[in-house]
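From the pipeline queue, job 12 of 40. The input is one protein chain; the requested action is below.

Action: predict structure.
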Amino acid sequence: MVGKTDFAKDYARDGAVCIRQAFSEEWIALARLGIEKNIARPSPFFRRLDDGTGAFLSDCWSRRYIPELSRFCLESSAARIAAHALASNRVRLAQDTWFVKEPGTAQRTPWHHDTVVQGPFCSIWVALDTIPRAATLEFIRGSHTWGKILMPKSFFDDPASRSAADAYYAEFHGDHAREDASLFGQVPDIEADRAAYDIVGWDMEAGDCLLFDARTVHGAPGNQTSHPVRRYVTRWVTDDAFVAHHAQDLITALDESGLNAGLRLGGPIRGPLFPEFDFESDGTARAAN
């Protein structure tokens, strides 16, 4: 846990940090309302995974038509936090997404890291509810320095044998490249020997956020609380980031959804879907596109 102004060093060293009360109640209420509207008006990226005891819900790039989420992305402190973490006066919003785990959801979010973008790439997960340590996102401290792209075990298995959660993460993490599986390492079986890893996580209150390097291996338990666990997430890159060579499935999904992102394998992340924020000498920020 760190304060609002001293997180960059911890972020660089550990790959993940919790920033307390980074977002005010105004922003939390706005994101909650945006998610409620989004569930009523889902996009092609909306997913609902139901394990019979509770459901996991998510959608992506919803700021395009949900005004509350657009305002959060463009006007909150998220861009400034990302710029400080990435040591850049220019950052781009790569994606906005949200996750809801209903009470009783038993299935874990598999251990993974985010690899379809390479180069400087961070995520800011904002807690919209009280989340106890037993239900919050966990990280392997320092794993952003391991130096190899890792895929969950299910990536190397027959797709027909995957759980719904494994299938979801394969869909958004480069399943097209299974024929090139030798290029990737496998995420170790962390749950089989948790004591062997430096696992960190935090009790969180609404307004706290988790800032982490996309390469930091992370996962989450189910939600055994009595209330939904909601998180709003923005993902950020610098001009040095580029589309990974195993990201064809993501490019295809964006094109088929009509977003016309203009991405190509190995290419930069540019265009209207990825607004740019330039930070001026006085510390203010403006969306450049």
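Job complete. The first strand starts at residue 16 and ends at 19.
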